[in-house]
């Protein structure tokens, strides 16, 4: 891709426009100059022809002829003229005109015409004048018609017009150059905030996310949106990146600890000779440790899948949450019994949500497991599913000791534990609620925890009901399942 | 020797405790969170603290800073799952004596634990000698005047503790504190019985008394046998 420079484009367009105007101005000026100079040239011709006419004198001969008296006449040497009387008799002509009757040069009807004389451009005036011979006689003298043809070279006019064109061209050229340089300098100055912004953006790296738009950019009206967009984008990126990094570091800690448990169990076993029974017990313990590690890995993968599913997968399944709710509750009955917790489920109507059956099961089981883990004996855990026209609400309520208000905002963070010392012992990995959140958000729903310390915790999941139930349909659960604890 | 293990992963803490008891024969107490860990550590009866970093309530680094802030000089071995020199530097600057990255080798942990205890008591060599008594803390053997003496584990532990503190009167209470963990029912006459056995075994061939009893005050390892 070819790069193009905004400043260069701007400067060249401005210069182009200026150039077009300059050419027009020069053309207009040239036309005007030509017109004005020709006018004054014609007046000059007229004057000189008049003075020639004035030089026609009575010849004082019997025929009352006229003659051209050239004494005192000062006419430019290159001018040509010819004076004739009405009979066509030549009264006088300039020395440099040897040609035929000069009046024959006339091309048109007008008194002034252009002609080429002696290889030069001339402007010629044909002046018909009247000269009265002996005006003192009776009858007012004898009028004599005189024709003066006078031509002067136009080279001077064209020279002046050319000078005017050169002057205008030069001044316009200077103007163009000044404009170009000035614009380049101003643009360079004006774009400085942009370069500062770019320089600041250049500093962003994987290790340095902080981006503070330079003040010059933030104060520039055109750059302010870009600067604030960049700042915002960087902040979001940094937040998401640091969250990822925290997840990786937390995951590494969890895994390393789990590996440390397995390794130390086996090393402890190998520390000295032991009896067969001791070995058997040790292997059993190690296997349990391995299973815990497996569980952590599986949960991390589940979370990663739930969080990074693509758009196509998002629309993959529609499943009845009621089926999952009831099935999961049945699965957890035995665990609840061991802990002396009463577990009930209410899911009377189907609730089709945009989740696969595995995701529905995962959501229900994580919520139930969480509730059961925090339930002291002789309490109750209730799972309720209510369906409205376009929304399903799943509530899981326990009567445990609740979550500290300060910890409540962090419960959906990965590897968070309400009370770490306890949930470690109850087998929590701190990923359950994060998985729930990822699943719920995938189906465009919301999840929230309400907790009152000492009274209990309620998880509320709200999901939009999918419009299209799957072809096969699903069983209806009209009965209220309340298995005995 | 008595060790405190502060680790929230119960299974790992169990394994550590078992290894430290079985290997070098230390008395081991466990704490599951930083708060309890700090409380126990502050009592000053431990010869080594094994401290995890990521702990509930109070994290390991804070516990360590609090301890060092209160002039508690007990050697501290940090267990960490974090990598990177930055955190290592921070740990050592905060007063940690050594650290191990998870997952670690139990053998290495025990070796480092022994070395830390030894150095914490001012000895650099694993073989300690007071007068003609020589205690090899690696092999856990005792020789007097070059001859191997067979001691029970408890007797060995008492002698090892006293060898670290020659010429100092060691009270029964101190011995109880440093040789038994919290699960042990404290009976001071147990110590008396072990001391008496130890004295007999050390006396086996010579007439030189090795362990001196100072009534009402405690016991002392005689540094110079001639003066006994």
Provide key terms for this protein.
heterodimer; A: 485 residues; alpha+beta; Beta-Lactamase; Helix Hairpins; Heat Shock Protein 90; 3 domains; five-stranded antiparallel beta sheet; five-stranded mixed beta sheet; 48% helix; 19% strand; disordered C terminus; B: 228 residues; alpha/beta; Rossmann fold; Arc Repressor Mutant, subunit A; 2 domains; five-stranded parallel beta sheet; four-stranded antiparallel beta sheet; 8 helices
Q: How would you sum up this structure, described in words?
A:
The complex is a heterodimer of chains A (485) and B (228). Chain A has 485 residues and is of the alpha+beta class. Chain A has three domains: 6-161, 2-Layer Sandwich (Beta-Lactamase), CATH 3.30.450; 242-306, Orthogonal Bundle (Helix Hairpins), CATH 1.10.287; 310-464, Histidine kinase-like ATPase, C-terminal domain (Heat Shock Protein 90), CATH 3.30.565.10. Chain A is built from eleven helices and 14 strands. Chain A has helices at 6-54, 155-190, 192-202, 215-218, 224-270, 276-307, 311-314, 321-338, 357-373, 420-425, 432-442; strands at residues 56-58, 66-68, 80-85, 90-93, 112-117, 120-133, 142-153, 319-320, 341-347, 352-353, 379-387, 391-398, 446-452, 456-464. In chain A, the strands form four sheets. A five-stranded antiparallel sheet of chain A has the order 4-3-7-6-5, covered by helices on one side. Chain A has a five-stranded mixed sheet with strand order 9-11-12-14-13. In chain A, a hairpin with a 7-residue loop joins strand 1 (56-58) and strand 2. Chain A is rod-shaped. Residues 419-427 and 472-485 of chain A have low confidence and may be disordered. With 228 residues, chain B is an alpha/beta fold. Chain B folds into two domains: 2-120, 3-Layer(aba) Sandwich (Rossmann fold); 127-227, Winged helix-like DNA-binding domain superfamily/Winged helix DNA-binding domain (Arc Repressor Mutant, subunit A, Orthogonal Bundle). Chain B has helices spanning 10-22, 34-42, 60-69, 85-93, 106-120, 153-163, 172-179, 188-203, and strands spanning 2-6, 27-31, 48-52, 76-80, 98-101, 127-130, 133-136, 141-144, 147-149, 211-214, 218-221. In chain B, strand 4 (76-80), helix 4 (85-93) and strand 5 form a beta-alpha-beta unit. In chain B, helix 2 (34-42) packs parallel to helix 3. Chain B is elongated. The mean pLDDT of chain B is 84. Classes of the chains: A alpha+beta (485), B alpha/beta (228). The A-B interface holds A 249, 252-253, 256-257, 259-265, 267-268, 271-272, 289, 292, 417, 419-421, 424-425 and B 8-12, 15-16, 18-19, 22-23, 32-33, 54, 56-57, 79, 81-82, 101-107.
